[in-house]
Amino acid sequence: MVKVYEINGVTPVVHPSAYVHPSAVLIGDVIVGPRCYIGPLASIRGDFGRLILEEGANLQDTCVMHGFPGCDTVVEVDGHIGHGAVLHGCRIGRNALVGMNAVVMDNAIVGEESIVAAMSFVKAGMIVAPRSMVVGTPAKVIRTLTDDEIKWKSSGTGQYHELAVRSMQTMREVEALTEVEAGRQRLNFESALPLHLHKNAAAQ
Q1: What angle do CA 67, 165, 103 make, to 5 degrees?
Q2: Can you spell out the DSSP letters for 141-178?
Q3: DSSP letter at 15?
Q4: Which side of the chain, N or C, has fewer Cβ within a 10 Å radius?
């Protein structure tokens, strides 16, 4: 069962086509749209401001979403939030990526099809133009993204769209095996791409 908590009479909303891992926690004014993926141990805490994940967005393992009273924290359509990232009172634009362990602060806006590199700190109020590469602590825009980099990002997000479906259809809690079985199969799904072998734009 997904851990969903009402507070002050406000209950989270999760679209039936979204996948939320049972260890994630959703509190209060949270809206999870169609085809979203919410990873293990994510914390989406809408006990002050509203938190919105629009269609096709993903929020990966141990991510945190929160915001101050009266503000919305939004991940727009196909937004991609990497492991351990923190979003606080900000807006992540359509098809943008926030890398692993990055932090995006209050009133910041990350423009559509932008990439925030892993471990970056986007300070409060920063406005990032569309298709920007954002790097550093504090973060700075260093250049415009190429079409190939945006295609790379979109491919990764597409795999999370499929992961939401695979998780709903095949993930179940089981007992661990005590030894590796003969001929152990590997995960095999039709669209599997070696994305880790592609040019990793978020590392630049």
Answers
A1: 25
A2: EEEEPPHHHHHHHHHHHHHHHHHHHHHHHH----PPPS
A3: -
A4: N
- 27: amino acid identity, one letter: I
**Helix, strand, coil share of the chain (percent; to 5):** 15, 35, 50
pTM above 0.90, yes or no: yes
- Sign, Cα dihedral of 198, 199, 200, 202: negative
Q: Measured on CA atoms in the order 152, 154, 158, 164, is the torsion positive or negative?
A: positive
Dihedral of the CA atoms 123, 126, 128, 133 (nearest 10)? -30
d(CA 177, CA 167): 20
Among residues 152, 81, 69, the alpha carbon closest in space to that of 110 is found at 81
Beta-strand pair 80-81/97-98: parallel
